[in-house]
Amino acid sequence: MEKLVDVDRRIIYLTILVLVSLPLLKPLGIPLEINKGTLDVFKQLDAVPAGERVLFSINYDPTSAPDIAPQAKVMLDHLMSKDVKVALVCFSAAGPAIIEGLIAPHLEAGKVYGEDLANLGFIAGAETAIRNFGRDVIGTAKADYHGNDLRNMPIMQGISDVRDFELVFVFHGYNPGVQEWVRQVQGPLGIRLLAGVVSVSVPEVMPFYTSGQLSGLTQGLRGAIFTALGLVAGTKRTGPFLIVGLVAATKR
Questions:
Q1: Domain presence at residue 121
Q2: What is the pTM of this model?
Q3: Are strands 117-122 and 167-172 parallel, antiparallel or unpaired?
């Protein structure tokens, strides 16, 4: 112990610096499992051609946002980077403000509201509203969150029912959510439906994925991290990539 006391503190600091830096410079390569549902979501989103339209259904509020908002953010970021157009709708009263927060960075970056993005606002009626919206988008929503007539918005041209979107992505924090979309829209209309859910909802939603009614499923913050990483070209390692992915997924 006395010998340690006599060691120059600069040597101690240098040793600590080396030990901390080594894992950053050469990641340990600890394997992390990427579940099939997350892989399916990434593949589905990555396959959407530029110029096509995707619908997001934002069904969460501030209480469930920590677990699911990062998912919505990274999915939207990915589609915007591919020049895919995204319309966002919600069936909960907290949704419009959440949507505004999601799209604001992209509008600031140069995306055009009404052409690249649209906030269709809150549609009251829970499951009935989802059913009606699925079959008649324009007739049910009529105007966006800002009062603009949907018939005059370029992003909505040619949209009749939700089958006119390349796919639909439901972000589920609570009901109405995945179950209502499957029951009222996916089953009857045969749309491609993806879902991102809070961790506690996985057991009730998983049967829809295993049955094929959901084409992909991300679970909690972990799903957002892997998608934010772009799956790091298929690798499964930790280190700086995971840290960067976590920051990207949680930044709002």
A1: yes
A2: 0.79
A3: unpaired
Percent residues over pLDDT 90 in the chain: 54
User: Which amino acid is located at 73 in the chain?
Assistant: K
Task: Calculate the alpha carbon distances from 202 to 66, 217, 249 in Å.
Answer: 16, 9, 20
The pLDDT score that the predictor gives to residue 176 is: 84
Distances (CA, A) of 26 to 16, 89, 103, 233: 16, 44, 37, 18
Q: What are the two backbone dihedrals, phi and then psi, of residue 59, each rounded to the nearest 5 degrees?
A: -115, 60
At residue 78, what are phi and psi to the nearest 5 degrees? -65, -45
Rounded distance, CA 101 to CA 94, Å? 12
Q: Which CATH number is 173's domain given? A: 3.40.50
**Which residue do the tokens 């099939």 mark?**
36
The β-bridge relationship of strands 193-197 and 85-90 is: unpaired
Strand partners, 56: 88, 169
Residue carrying structure tokens 């390692």: 237
Kindly report, residue by residue over 44-76, the tens digit of the pLDDT.
Answer: 998 999 999 999 999 988 888 888 888 899 889
Cα angle 89-34-39, degrees, rounded to a multiple of 5: 50
Residue 13 lies in a domain: no
**Is 11 inside a domain boundary?**
no
| Residue 53 β-bridge partners | 85
Length of the chain: 252
